[in-house]
Design brief:
The protein is mostly beta strands. 2% of the residues lie in helices and 36% in strands. The strands form 11 sheets. Strands 1, 2, 12, 15 and 16 form a 5-stranded mixed sheet that branches. Strand 7 and strand 8 form a beta hairpin.
Length: 447
Protein backbone atom coordinates (compact mmCIF):
# COMPACT_ATOMS: atom_id res chain seq x y z
CA UNK A 1 0.00 0.00 0.00
CA UNK A 2 1.10 3.58 -0.64
CA UNK A 3 1.79 6.24 1.99
CA UNK A 4 -0.56 9.19 1.38
CA UNK A 5 2.30 11.50 0.40
CA UNK A 6 3.22 9.48 -2.69
CA UNK A 7 2.09 10.53 -6.17
CA UNK A 8 1.76 8.90 -9.57
CA UNK A 9 1.26 10.16 -13.12
CA UNK A 10 -1.96 9.66 -15.05
CA UNK A 11 -1.70 9.86 -18.86
CA UNK A 12 -5.44 9.96 -19.57
CA UNK A 13 -8.39 12.26 -19.00
CA UNK A 14 -9.87 13.80 -15.91
CA UNK A 15 -12.91 11.60 -16.29
CA UNK A 16 -10.84 8.41 -16.22
CA UNK A 17 -8.81 9.07 -13.05
CA UNK A 18 -9.16 5.75 -11.16
CA UNK A 19 -11.42 5.37 -8.15
CA UNK A 20 -9.57 5.90 -4.88
CA UNK A 21 -7.36 8.52 -6.52
CA UNK A 22 -7.80 12.25 -7.13
CA UNK A 23 -6.10 14.89 -9.22
CA UNK A 24 -3.49 16.87 -7.26
CA UNK A 25 -4.17 20.31 -8.73
CA UNK A 26 -1.12 21.75 -6.97
CA UNK A 27 0.93 20.32 -9.88
CA UNK A 28 -1.13 21.92 -12.64
CA UNK A 29 1.17 23.75 -15.07
CA UNK A 30 4.26 22.76 -13.07
CA UNK A 31 7.15 20.37 -13.50
CA UNK A 32 8.34 18.18 -10.59
CA UNK A 33 11.84 18.83 -9.28
CA UNK A 34 13.53 16.99 -6.40
CA UNK A 35 13.96 19.07 -3.25
CA UNK A 36 16.45 18.73 -0.42
CA UNK A 37 16.28 15.00 0.23
CA UNK A 38 16.33 14.05 3.90
CA UNK A 39 15.71 17.68 4.92
CA UNK A 40 12.69 18.03 2.63
CA UNK A 41 9.86 19.82 4.46
CA UNK A 42 7.22 19.76 1.73
CA UNK A 43 6.57 21.20 -1.72
CA UNK A 44 7.76 24.64 -2.75
CA UNK A 45 6.40 26.27 -5.89
CA UNK A 46 8.24 28.58 -8.27
CA UNK A 47 6.31 31.21 -10.16
CA UNK A 48 8.50 31.55 -13.23
CA UNK A 49 5.64 31.07 -15.66
CA UNK A 50 7.01 33.58 -18.16
CA UNK A 51 10.57 33.16 -19.33
CA UNK A 52 12.34 36.52 -19.73
CA UNK A 53 15.75 37.81 -20.77
CA UNK A 54 17.26 41.28 -20.81
CA UNK A 55 19.46 42.18 -23.74
CA UNK A 56 22.98 43.15 -22.81
CA UNK A 57 23.70 46.88 -22.95
CA UNK A 58 25.02 47.75 -26.39
CA UNK A 59 25.73 50.73 -28.58
CA UNK A 60 25.73 51.52 -32.27
CA UNK A 61 27.78 53.81 -34.47
CA UNK A 62 25.89 55.74 -37.10
CA UNK A 63 26.90 55.56 -40.74
CA UNK A 64 29.81 57.86 -41.42
CA UNK A 65 28.63 61.06 -43.01
CA UNK A 66 29.82 64.52 -43.99
CA UNK A 67 28.39 67.96 -44.58
CA UNK A 68 28.69 70.39 -47.49
CA UNK A 69 30.56 73.57 -46.62
CA UNK A 70 30.55 76.80 -48.66
CA UNK A 71 32.49 80.01 -47.89
CA UNK A 72 30.99 83.42 -48.68
CA UNK A 73 33.15 86.15 -50.25
CA UNK A 74 35.72 87.82 -48.02
CA UNK A 75 38.30 90.54 -48.66
CA UNK A 76 41.77 89.81 -47.47
CA UNK A 77 44.45 92.17 -46.33
CA UNK A 78 46.92 94.18 -48.38
CA UNK A 79 49.98 92.31 -49.61
CA UNK A 80 53.07 94.34 -48.86
CA UNK A 81 55.98 92.44 -50.29
CA UNK A 82 56.10 90.25 -53.35
CA UNK A 83 59.32 88.61 -54.49
CA UNK A 84 60.03 88.74 -58.20
CA UNK A 85 62.34 86.42 -60.00
CA UNK A 86 65.79 87.82 -59.46
CA UNK A 87 64.40 91.19 -58.42
CA UNK A 88 64.46 92.66 -54.91
CA UNK A 89 61.35 92.75 -52.86
CA UNK A 90 58.76 95.17 -54.26
CA UNK A 91 55.93 96.75 -52.29
CA UNK A 92 52.38 96.81 -53.65
CA UNK A 93 50.44 99.14 -51.41
CA UNK A 94 46.68 99.28 -51.76
CA UNK A 95 46.26 95.81 -53.20
CA UNK A 96 43.52 93.72 -51.59
CA UNK A 97 42.36 90.21 -52.37
CA UNK A 98 38.65 89.47 -52.58
CA UNK A 99 37.75 85.81 -52.94
CA UNK A 100 35.23 83.07 -52.21
CA UNK A 101 35.48 79.35 -51.56
CA UNK A 102 33.26 77.03 -53.61
CA UNK A 103 31.36 74.11 -52.16
CA UNK A 104 33.40 71.39 -50.52
CA UNK A 105 32.63 68.50 -48.16
CA UNK A 106 33.67 68.34 -44.55
CA UNK A 107 35.60 65.50 -42.96
CA UNK A 108 33.64 62.35 -42.26
CA UNK A 109 32.37 61.40 -38.79
CA UNK A 110 30.04 58.82 -37.25
CA UNK A 111 27.44 59.20 -34.51
CA UNK A 112 27.68 57.05 -31.40
CA UNK A 113 24.33 55.83 -30.09
CA UNK A 114 24.54 55.23 -26.37
CA UNK A 115 24.11 51.88 -24.69
CA UNK A 116 20.58 50.64 -24.24
CA UNK A 117 18.65 47.41 -24.04
CA UNK A 118 15.26 45.80 -24.20
CA UNK A 119 13.33 42.96 -22.60
CA UNK A 120 12.44 39.96 -24.73
CA UNK A 121 9.19 38.19 -23.96
CA UNK A 122 8.05 34.75 -25.04
CA UNK A 123 4.98 33.44 -23.21
CA UNK A 124 4.79 29.81 -22.19
CA UNK A 125 4.84 27.16 -23.57
CA UNK A 126 7.25 28.28 -26.30
CA UNK A 127 10.30 28.07 -24.02
CA UNK A 128 9.46 24.67 -22.51
CA UNK A 129 11.58 21.60 -23.24
CA UNK A 130 10.01 18.65 -25.07
CA UNK A 131 7.33 17.63 -22.56
CA UNK A 132 4.25 15.51 -22.01
CA UNK A 133 1.32 16.92 -20.07
CA UNK A 134 0.21 14.65 -17.22
CA UNK A 135 -2.33 14.58 -14.42
CA UNK A 136 -0.54 14.11 -11.11
CA UNK A 137 -2.74 11.88 -8.94
CA UNK A 138 -2.76 11.27 -5.19
CA UNK A 139 -4.24 8.38 -3.20
CA UNK A 140 -7.42 9.17 -1.27
CA UNK A 141 -6.38 6.85 1.57
CA UNK A 142 -3.60 4.47 2.63
CA UNK A 143 -5.33 1.44 1.09
CA UNK A 144 -4.27 2.24 -2.48
CA UNK A 145 -1.64 0.85 -4.83
CA UNK A 146 -0.52 2.38 -8.11
CA UNK A 147 -3.56 1.95 -10.38
CA UNK A 148 -3.53 0.08 -13.65
CA UNK A 149 -2.57 2.46 -16.47
CA UNK A 150 -0.68 4.90 -14.23
CA UNK A 151 2.93 5.86 -14.95
CA UNK A 152 6.01 5.94 -12.70
CA UNK A 153 9.79 5.50 -13.05
CA UNK A 154 12.50 2.86 -12.67
CA UNK A 155 16.22 3.38 -12.07
CA UNK A 156 17.52 0.17 -13.64
CA UNK A 157 16.92 -1.81 -16.83
CA UNK A 158 14.98 -4.43 -14.87
CA UNK A 159 11.29 -3.61 -15.10
CA UNK A 160 9.19 -3.52 -11.93
CA UNK A 161 6.81 -6.51 -11.90
CA UNK A 162 3.61 -5.68 -13.78
CA UNK A 163 5.07 -2.60 -15.48
CA UNK A 164 6.23 -2.07 -19.07
CA UNK A 165 8.30 0.66 -20.75
CA UNK A 166 6.15 3.57 -21.95
CA UNK A 167 7.66 4.83 -25.25
CA UNK A 168 5.04 7.60 -25.69
CA UNK A 169 7.00 9.69 -23.19
CA UNK A 170 10.49 8.81 -24.42
CA UNK A 171 12.81 11.83 -24.09
CA UNK A 172 10.03 13.91 -22.54
CA UNK A 173 9.87 15.94 -19.35
CA UNK A 174 6.60 15.68 -17.41
CA UNK A 175 4.52 18.75 -16.64
CA UNK A 176 1.16 18.98 -14.95
CA UNK A 177 -1.61 19.68 -17.45
CA UNK A 178 -3.22 23.11 -17.28
CA UNK A 179 -6.00 23.45 -14.73
CA UNK A 180 -8.99 21.37 -15.82
CA UNK A 181 -7.24 19.99 -18.92
CA UNK A 182 -6.73 16.34 -19.76
CA UNK A 183 -3.27 14.80 -20.02
CA UNK A 184 -1.60 13.54 -23.17
CA UNK A 185 -0.38 16.63 -25.04
CA UNK A 186 3.17 16.62 -26.33
CA UNK A 187 4.57 20.16 -26.23
CA UNK A 188 7.82 22.12 -26.23
CA UNK A 189 10.99 21.92 -28.31
CA UNK A 190 14.73 21.37 -27.95
CA UNK A 191 15.46 25.06 -28.60
CA UNK A 192 13.59 28.34 -28.38
CA UNK A 193 13.90 31.97 -29.41
CA UNK A 194 12.47 35.28 -28.23
CA UNK A 195 11.02 38.33 -29.92
CA UNK A 196 11.74 41.79 -28.59
CA UNK A 197 8.61 43.59 -27.55
CA UNK A 198 8.48 46.51 -27.48
CA UNK A 199 11.20 47.71 -29.83
CA UNK A 200 14.06 49.77 -28.49
CA UNK A 201 15.85 52.97 -29.40
CA UNK A 202 19.16 54.59 -28.49
CA UNK A 203 20.07 58.16 -27.66
CA UNK A 204 22.58 59.74 -30.03
CA UNK A 205 25.51 61.54 -28.49
CA UNK A 206 26.48 64.94 -29.85
CA UNK A 207 29.21 64.73 -32.45
CA UNK A 208 31.57 66.98 -34.36
CA UNK A 209 33.78 66.67 -37.41
CA UNK A 210 37.54 67.06 -37.34
CA UNK A 211 39.22 70.00 -39.03
CA UNK A 212 39.61 69.81 -42.79
CA UNK A 213 40.98 72.16 -45.45
CA UNK A 214 38.50 74.08 -47.52
CA UNK A 215 38.36 74.01 -51.27
CA UNK A 216 40.76 76.35 -53.10
CA UNK A 217 39.52 79.91 -53.16
CA UNK A 218 38.71 81.84 -56.31
CA UNK A 219 40.63 85.14 -55.92
CA UNK A 220 40.93 88.44 -57.76
CA UNK A 221 42.73 91.73 -57.23
CA UNK A 222 40.35 94.59 -56.44
CA UNK A 223 42.65 97.58 -57.07
CA UNK A 224 41.66 98.65 -60.59
CA UNK A 225 44.77 100.84 -60.98
CA UNK A 226 47.04 97.89 -60.97
CA UNK A 227 47.58 95.55 -63.87
CA UNK A 228 45.75 92.27 -63.82
CA UNK A 229 47.15 89.71 -61.47
CA UNK A 230 46.89 85.95 -61.58
CA UNK A 231 46.38 84.44 -58.16
CA UNK A 232 47.08 80.76 -57.68
CA UNK A 233 44.07 78.98 -56.21
CA UNK A 234 44.95 77.38 -52.90
CA UNK A 235 43.05 75.85 -49.97
CA UNK A 236 44.19 78.21 -47.28
CA UNK A 237 41.63 77.72 -44.50
CA UNK A 238 41.07 74.86 -42.04
CA UNK A 239 37.51 74.45 -40.79
CA UNK A 240 36.12 72.28 -37.99
CA UNK A 241 32.41 71.62 -37.63
CA UNK A 242 31.20 72.25 -34.09
CA UNK A 243 29.26 69.71 -32.04
CA UNK A 244 25.73 69.06 -33.22
CA UNK A 245 23.05 68.09 -30.69
CA UNK A 246 22.12 64.45 -30.24
CA UNK A 247 18.82 62.73 -30.95
CA UNK A 248 17.21 59.29 -30.99
CA UNK A 249 17.65 56.44 -33.38
CA UNK A 250 14.61 54.66 -34.76
CA UNK A 251 12.99 51.58 -33.20
CA UNK A 252 14.42 48.14 -33.86
CA UNK A 253 12.70 44.80 -33.15
CA UNK A 254 15.42 42.12 -33.31
CA UNK A 255 14.81 38.53 -32.28
CA UNK A 256 16.90 36.54 -29.83
CA UNK A 257 18.74 33.70 -31.50
CA UNK A 258 18.04 30.07 -30.53
CA UNK A 259 19.16 28.60 -27.21
CA UNK A 260 18.65 25.18 -25.66
CA UNK A 261 15.33 24.62 -23.86
CA UNK A 262 16.69 21.68 -21.88
CA UNK A 263 17.12 22.31 -18.14
CA UNK A 264 19.68 20.38 -16.15
CA UNK A 265 18.31 16.82 -16.05
CA UNK A 266 18.89 13.21 -15.08
CA UNK A 267 17.34 10.32 -16.97
CA UNK A 268 15.04 7.63 -15.53
CA UNK A 269 13.21 4.83 -17.27
CA UNK A 270 9.52 5.65 -17.72
CA UNK A 271 7.21 2.67 -17.00
CA UNK A 272 3.46 2.10 -16.99
CA UNK A 273 1.35 -0.33 -14.99
CA UNK A 274 0.06 -2.86 -17.49
CA UNK A 275 -0.71 -5.63 -14.99
CA UNK A 276 -4.45 -5.08 -15.07
CA UNK A 277 -4.54 -4.52 -11.30
CA UNK A 278 -3.36 -1.92 -8.81
CA UNK A 279 0.14 -2.78 -7.65
CA UNK A 280 3.20 -1.14 -6.11
CA UNK A 281 6.10 -3.45 -6.92
CA UNK A 282 9.63 -3.34 -5.60
CA UNK A 283 12.00 -0.92 -7.45
CA UNK A 284 9.24 1.46 -8.55
CA UNK A 285 10.15 5.18 -8.28
CA UNK A 286 7.52 7.83 -7.56
CA UNK A 287 7.42 11.44 -6.25
CA UNK A 288 6.70 12.14 -2.56
CA UNK A 289 5.39 15.41 -1.08
CA UNK A 290 5.11 14.95 2.69
CA UNK A 291 7.49 16.43 5.26
CA UNK A 292 10.42 14.02 5.42
CA UNK A 293 12.32 16.16 7.92
CA UNK A 294 9.50 15.58 10.43
CA UNK A 295 7.87 12.30 9.36
CA UNK A 296 10.96 10.56 8.07
CA UNK A 297 11.20 8.39 4.96
CA UNK A 298 8.29 5.92 4.77
CA UNK A 299 9.22 2.36 5.74
CA UNK A 300 10.21 0.29 2.74
CA UNK A 301 11.30 3.30 0.67
CA UNK A 302 14.62 5.10 0.08
CA UNK A 303 15.42 8.57 -1.24
CA UNK A 304 16.72 8.69 -4.80
CA UNK A 305 20.08 10.25 -4.01
CA UNK A 306 22.33 7.79 -5.84
CA UNK A 307 23.46 5.98 -2.69
CA UNK A 308 22.59 2.61 -1.18
CA UNK A 309 19.79 0.92 -3.09
CA UNK A 310 19.05 3.95 -5.30
CA UNK A 311 20.97 3.79 -8.55
CA UNK A 312 20.45 7.37 -9.75
CA UNK A 313 20.93 10.69 -7.97
CA UNK A 314 17.79 12.75 -8.57
CA UNK A 315 18.89 15.63 -6.36
CA UNK A 316 18.10 18.96 -8.06
CA UNK A 317 17.93 18.00 -11.77
CA UNK A 318 14.58 17.52 -13.44
CA UNK A 319 13.62 14.06 -14.68
CA UNK A 320 13.83 13.23 -18.36
CA UNK A 321 12.09 10.05 -19.46
CA UNK A 322 13.69 7.32 -21.49
CA UNK A 323 12.88 3.79 -22.60
CA UNK A 324 16.50 3.09 -23.58
CA UNK A 325 18.25 1.13 -20.86
CA UNK A 326 21.71 2.52 -21.63
CA UNK A 327 20.44 6.08 -21.04
CA UNK A 328 19.32 5.48 -17.43
CA UNK A 329 21.28 7.83 -15.19
CA UNK A 330 22.49 10.01 -18.06
CA UNK A 331 22.66 13.73 -17.31
CA UNK A 332 22.50 16.77 -19.56
CA UNK A 333 20.94 20.14 -20.12
CA UNK A 334 22.09 23.28 -18.40
CA UNK A 335 21.23 25.22 -15.27
CA UNK A 336 21.11 28.56 -17.08
CA UNK A 337 21.20 29.81 -20.64
CA UNK A 338 21.45 33.01 -22.61
CA UNK A 339 20.83 34.14 -26.18
CA UNK A 340 22.65 36.09 -28.85
CA UNK A 341 20.41 38.87 -30.11
CA UNK A 342 20.12 39.02 -33.90
CA UNK A 343 22.31 41.62 -35.57
CA UNK A 344 20.20 44.73 -36.03
CA UNK A 345 20.47 48.38 -36.92
CA UNK A 346 18.41 51.53 -36.45
CA UNK A 347 17.36 54.38 -38.67
CA UNK A 348 19.62 57.31 -37.83
CA UNK A 349 18.60 60.59 -36.26
CA UNK A 350 16.78 63.17 -38.35
CA UNK A 351 18.70 65.68 -40.44
CA UNK A 352 21.05 67.87 -38.45
CA UNK A 353 23.60 70.55 -39.10
CA UNK A 354 26.64 72.12 -37.45
CA UNK A 355 28.21 75.46 -36.87
CA UNK A 356 31.81 76.03 -37.90
CA UNK A 357 35.06 77.14 -36.36
CA UNK A 358 37.86 78.56 -38.50
CA UNK A 359 40.97 76.87 -37.20
CA UNK A 360 43.46 78.50 -39.54
CA UNK A 361 43.09 81.40 -41.94
CA UNK A 362 45.93 79.84 -43.83
CA UNK A 363 48.45 81.16 -46.32
CA UNK A 364 47.48 82.68 -49.66
CA UNK A 365 49.68 82.33 -52.66
CA UNK A 366 49.74 85.09 -55.29
CA UNK A 367 51.62 85.37 -58.55
CA UNK A 368 52.00 87.74 -61.46
CA UNK A 369 53.67 86.91 -64.74
CA UNK A 370 57.36 86.43 -64.04
CA UNK A 371 56.90 86.42 -60.26
CA UNK A 372 57.81 83.54 -58.02
CA UNK A 373 54.82 82.67 -55.77
CA UNK A 374 55.24 83.69 -52.17
CA UNK A 375 53.27 82.44 -49.22
CA UNK A 376 51.99 85.07 -46.84
CA UNK A 377 49.59 85.42 -43.97
CA UNK A 378 46.43 87.33 -44.61
CA UNK A 379 44.06 87.42 -41.67
CA UNK A 380 40.43 87.45 -42.71
CA UNK A 381 37.19 85.58 -42.05
CA UNK A 382 34.45 83.98 -44.08
CA UNK A 383 30.86 83.12 -43.30
CA UNK A 384 30.65 79.38 -43.73
CA UNK A 385 27.38 77.76 -44.73
CA UNK A 386 26.89 74.16 -43.53
CA UNK A 387 24.29 71.93 -45.14
CA UNK A 388 21.94 69.68 -43.14
CA UNK A 389 22.59 65.93 -43.40
CA UNK A 390 20.75 62.78 -42.33
CA UNK A 391 23.35 60.19 -41.26
CA UNK A 392 21.37 57.13 -42.35
CA UNK A 393 21.29 53.76 -40.58
CA UNK A 394 23.46 52.69 -37.70
CA UNK A 395 25.96 49.90 -38.08
CA UNK A 396 24.66 46.40 -37.25
CA UNK A 397 25.22 45.18 -33.67
CA UNK A 398 24.57 41.75 -32.19
CA UNK A 399 24.52 41.90 -28.36
CA UNK A 400 24.12 39.00 -25.96
CA UNK A 401 21.46 38.62 -23.29
CA UNK A 402 21.21 38.01 -19.57
CA UNK A 403 21.89 34.51 -18.26
CA UNK A 404 18.61 33.13 -16.88
CA UNK A 405 17.42 29.96 -15.10
CA UNK A 406 16.84 27.22 -17.66
CA UNK A 407 14.20 25.52 -15.48
CA UNK A 408 10.58 26.20 -16.11
CA UNK A 409 8.05 26.68 -13.28
CA UNK A 410 8.18 23.67 -10.96
CA UNK A 411 7.00 22.17 -7.67
CA UNK A 412 9.52 20.47 -5.42
CA UNK A 413 9.15 16.82 -4.47
CA UNK A 414 11.40 13.98 -3.30
CA UNK A 415 11.65 10.91 -5.47
CA UNK A 416 11.45 7.64 -3.51
CA UNK A 417 12.19 4.10 -4.55
CA UNK A 418 10.43 1.08 -3.07
CA UNK A 419 12.81 -1.54 -1.76
CA UNK A 420 12.48 -5.12 -0.57
CA UNK A 421 12.05 -5.28 3.20
CA UNK A 422 14.17 -8.04 4.67
CA UNK A 423 12.16 -10.46 6.83
CA UNK A 424 13.03 -13.32 9.24
CA UNK A 425 11.25 -16.57 8.46
CA UNK A 426 9.36 -17.91 11.52
CA UNK A 427 10.83 -20.94 13.29
CA UNK A 428 9.25 -24.25 12.21
CA UNK A 429 6.94 -25.86 14.83
CA UNK A 430 8.49 -28.45 17.09
CA UNK A 431 6.37 -31.21 15.64
CA UNK A 432 7.89 -30.50 12.22
CA UNK A 433 11.34 -30.79 13.73
CA UNK A 434 10.78 -34.18 15.41
CA UNK A 435 12.81 -36.92 13.91
CA UNK A 436 11.42 -40.35 13.31
CA UNK A 437 12.74 -43.06 15.58
CA UNK A 438 14.56 -45.73 13.67
CA UNK A 439 13.23 -49.20 13.81
CA UNK A 440 15.27 -52.22 12.91
CA UNK A 441 14.94 -56.04 12.64
CA UNK A 442 15.73 -58.06 15.77
CA UNK A 443 19.17 -59.58 15.87
CA UNK A 444 19.14 -63.38 16.11
CA UNK A 445 21.79 -64.78 18.31
CA UNK A 446 23.23 -68.21 17.95
CA UNK A 447 22.70 -70.75 20.68
Amino acid sequence: MLPPGLRAFWPGTNATVPAGWSRDTAFDNLFALQGDGATFTGPLDTADILHLHDADPHEHTGSRHRHRVTGAAATGGTPSNIVTSGVPTIAFPGVTLQHTHPRTFGAEAGITYTTGGFVTLTPEPAARPPSATVIVIRPDNTMQDIPNGAVAFADSPELPIGFAAYPTWHHKFLIGAATGDDAGDLIGSETHTHTSNPGHVHSALGHSHPAFPTAPGTKREVDPTLPAASYINQAHHSIALTTAPGGLSGDAFPDAGPASSLPEFVTLKVVRNTSGIATTPTSIVVPYVDDIATLGVPQGWVIMDGTGQSNVDCTSPQIRCTVTDTEIGDTGGQATHSHVIDAHFHAGIVSHFHGSTQINNGNQFIARPGFVPLARDDTHDHVWTISATAPGNTDPTSPGSSDEDARRAYRTVVFLKKIQIASIMPTAPLWRRRRKRRTGSPVLQKA
